[in-house]
Design goal:
The chain has helices at about 15-30, 50-60, 110-125, 140-155, 230-235, 240-245, 245-250, 305-320, 340-345, 345-360; strands at about 5-10, 35-40, 65-70, 70-75, 75-80, 85-90, 95-105, 130-135, 160-165, 175, 180, 185-195, 195-205, 205-220, 220-225, 230, 255-260, 270-275, 275-280, 285, 295-300, 330-335, 365-370, 375-380, 380-385, 390-395. By secondary structure, it is an alpha+beta fold. The strands form four sheets. Strands 14, 15, 16, 17, 18, 19, 20 and 21 form an eight-stranded antiparallel sheet that branches. A six-stranded mixed sheet has the order 1-6-2-3-10-11. Helix 4 (about 140-155) links the parallel strand 8 and strand 9. Helix 1 packs parallel to helix 2. It starts with a strand and ends with a strand.
């Protein structure tokens, strides 16, 4: 049996109706009536447990992984409304999907990564293709996650994925693992078997102002930049009223960290870091990785035209590498800050998504979400990115 994949979506506000509509559509497009694995992505307007319960029932309890996002993405484009979900069903004798769960990211992201790594190693799975990571976007420290995973399973498996979001609330995100809806966790899927992967990553940010220095940081919290409170520095280009809305402020501005020399020939000058939370008392900000004291940085701002251009270029590079082979499916992880909050409307926000889908093929099963952080390798080393689009193409 060849690999069969289908994607369904819904904008229905009722969780049961939404799940039913999406699952039915996914099965019909795949041409199957049962599946081996399910990816589920949803926005937070739904009662999360009700959505998961219905999807699990309708897919006969097939193993499932996924998370919440600021919006969902399918072949039909993005949906950033409060109610939106997408379901990808997969049935294959060629490709295997093994899912795992890590807990308590805030307490120790490294331990969560290590626990998943041990489960993977214990399974002794051959012909690994990629490890899809879907961690909590508000509590993860991805530097520690990578260290925990790689300390057990090494660096041969590419990590690809995105951190979960919550429609710009910045309060609580959700991760799905079989029958569980969790927070402060990481859902993971190991893809293995007779398949290959190509990954593309692009961002559309430009530097503004002069280079600065992080002068006080601890873990993934930045306290001072150029000896001034961090958040004050990050919002110095905003009007006082704009700076009060943390979510909107951080949708426009980010921190640029100079890229390591070993990838400077294939990546932009800066790797972008988003601020996930701030402490109003001391104006410190939390990022989903680490930038220690003494790190040079650049204030970054997104540019819509550059974003669309680079998204298309990333898809074209993948297409060239495929050499005429048609993808089985695409997983798409796009930054929440690259959607309608940047373009002003959902219709305009379709432009970069359309550019990628038109390049690779609008008929390819395509599922993903708008995230609070994106994960992909560059030159065989795994990195966390922000304000980027990551395409994971399995063929």
């Amino acid at each position: 049996m060849s690999t069969k994949v289908g994607v369904g979506s819904s904008k229905e506000p009722d969780p049961k109706k939404a799940a039913s509509e999406a699952v039915k559509m996914a099965f019909e497009k795949a041409g199957i009536d049962k599946c081996d694995f399910v990816f589920l992505f949803a926005t937070i307007g739904y009662e999360q447990e009700e959505v998961l319960k219905e999807v699990r029932m309708l897919t006969n309890g097939a193993p499932l992984s996924g998370c919440s996002g600021e919006g969902v993405i399918t072949q039909d484009g993005p949906n950033e409304k409060l109610y939106g979900l997408s379901v990808m069903v997969l049935a294959s004798k060629e490709i295997k999907f093994s899912n795992y769960l890590g807990r308590n990211l805030k307490e120790s992201s490294g331990s969560a990564g290590e626990s998943i790594g041990k489960e993977i190693k214990k399974g002794n799975i051959k012909n690994t293709v990629a490890l899809i990571l879907l961690p909590d976007g508000l509590t993860c420290n991805m530097k520690q996650v990578f260290a925990g995973l790689e300390g057990v399973i090494g660096t041969d498996i590419p990590f690809i994925g995105g951190t979960s979001g919550d429609n710009w609330k910045f309060t609580k995100t959700y991760q799905y693992h079989n029958d569980e809806v969790l927070t402060d966790a990481m859902s993971a899927v190991l893809i293995s078997g007779n398949a290959k992967v190509e990954v593309g990553v692009s961002h559309g940010c430009i530097p503004i102002g002069l280079e600065k220095e992080i002068t006080k940081a601890e873990g993934n919290r930045i306290y001072e930049i150029d000896n001034k409170p961090a958040y004050e520095v990050l919002t110095e280009y905003l009007a006082p009223g704009e700076a009060k809305d943390f979510g909107k402020a951080m949708a426009y501005f980010a921190i640029g960290e100079p890229v390591p020399e070993e990838i400077s020939d294939v990546y932009d000058k800066y790797m972008v870091r988003a601020c996930m939370s701030r402490d109003e008392k001391d104006s410190s900000v939390t990022i989903p990785t680490e930038m220690p004291t003494g790190t040079k940085m650049q204030l970054m701002r997104r540019d819509a035209e550059s974003l669309i251009k680079r998204a298309k270029e990333a898809a074209e590079q993948i297409k060239q590498k495929l050499g005429g082979k048609k993808p089985k499916f695409v997983l798409h992880f796009d930054c929440a800050g690259r959607g309608k909050i940047l373009f002003g409307s959902e219709e305009k926000a379709k432009k970069p998504v359309d550019a990628m889908q038109e390049t690779l093929g609008k008929d390819i099963p395509w599922a993903g979400l708008f995230t609070f952080g994106e994960i992909s390798p560059v030159k065989n080393k795994n990195y966390l990115h922000n304000y980027t689009a990551v395409l994971c193409v399995i063929y």
